[in-house]
Amino acid sequence: MRKQALISVSDKTGVVPFARELQKLGYHILSTGGTAKLLLKEGVECQEVADYTGFPEMLDGRVKTLNPKIHAGILARRPDPEHMKALADHDIDPIDLVVVNLYPFEQTIARPDCTFELAIENIDIGGPTMIRAAAKNHESVAVVVDPADYDRVLEEIRREGGVTAATRLMLAKKVFAHTARYDGMITNYLTSLDEEGNRGRFPQVLTRQWEKVQDMRYGENPHQAAAFYREVSVAPGLLAGYVQLQGKELSYNNIADSDAAWECARSFDAPACVIIKHANPCGVAIGENDAEAYRKAFMTDSKSAFGGILAFNREVSGECAQLVSKQFAEVIIAPSYSKEALEVFGAKKNLRLLTVSNGKAANDFDFKRVGGGLLVQTPDTQLCDASSLRCVTERKPTSQQVADLMFAWNVARFVKSNTIVYVRDGMTLGVGAGQMSRVDSARIAALKAEEAGLSLEGSVAASDAFFPFRDGLDVVVDAGCTAVIQPGGSIRDDEVIAAANERGIAMVFTGERHFRH
User: Fold this and answer.
1) 172 to 168, 264, 271, 374: CA distances (angstroms)
2) Active site residues
3) Beta-carbon neighbour count of residue 448 at 10 Å?
4) What is the pLDDT of residues 172-213, one digit of tens each?
């Protein structure tokens, strides 16, 4: 009985050499439409499915593989004599290998010009039916949906005479994950449309898919179990696309803190260093280069920096690595490392070094699990620019103060609320995070600066939300602050503005708030 492979792919990456090798290995190839044309053009013999089934493609190609001769050949269990007799009675050859990937629905709906009709036409029917059938019958059939698996399949056929049971099971798992994601994308798209066909931001039924990267020794605390999953398609620039160059396995808290550090670091255009401790920045600075940025960030709170997570938005130089090596760090994240930096860090075998591409992509949604539910929002990526600031005081900020105010405002986005951040010359001087009272955050931030030996005279301050009373403003001015950035919007704005004028400081409103819970 001849060996048969059915090949029908939308993504034609590597399919010609793969099919050519299958032919050399004795496979009779069935194919359809564009795939068949490509194979024949490249000199790979194949039989059109319509010729094999004796039933022509119809309805503009919507019906071609939905035929008993195809599905019986896929679904027949080889060890079952009754199944094999049924095939013989109807002159049907078994299909041993199904190589199918689906219409590009995801790419289609991502197009700005995508119409509803175009989206519907890119919902595959025959493809999912074939690969699910083959995956169900993986005891007898191998199914390939990912071109990355072509080499493994060929190597096993050459060595074993067929695809091994372990690989067939692995491939079947990939199929059901693949079709689940595919159906999920269709669900997300269709349930995001209103009655007029307008596409909303949040689907009525939201489906997502993640793949496990690793099990972890424990979660946030030792008595909690944990694992790390990354989204199936990770956009460039996001932490989940990291590559670990050295060091111990990442923990649950390492990954959470690394994400906070990287998101903050990559938000700056100038060379920046961010030091994170327990999800909050304890030091952030920009400089002429990575070494200067690190020196300034470390000065903010060298005590809290012990055991921290460091992120850089530029390649780490040898000079910077020498400075960083003097402190204890858990993780360092950067787009790349110089040869000299790798040599320096190589002496610290437990230090985790990560590289992450320096892209500008953002998550489409942020999620927060609650009991029996899920809160979903768009990420906080909006940041006003200096030209949109509204000065509300008699005193106007200088150009240097505006630069520091914008720096402080950006940092405040990444600090747990309530947030007060003191800044001067492109570096944080004190950070007050996560307090129930904004006044307490202002006092804590000033205290941290004092402990670090940093003067707040001439500094600026950012508040992630408005000052509800003048007391918080008085605290930052008493500490030495000369300019403040805040959203505004309180019913007592006039009282706070009057206090700022009374104290002789500049204050600007942004009109946007940056709570972080």
Assistant:
1) 6, 40, 47, 30
2) 136, 278
3) 22
4) 999 999 999 999 999 999 999 988 888 888 999 999 999 999
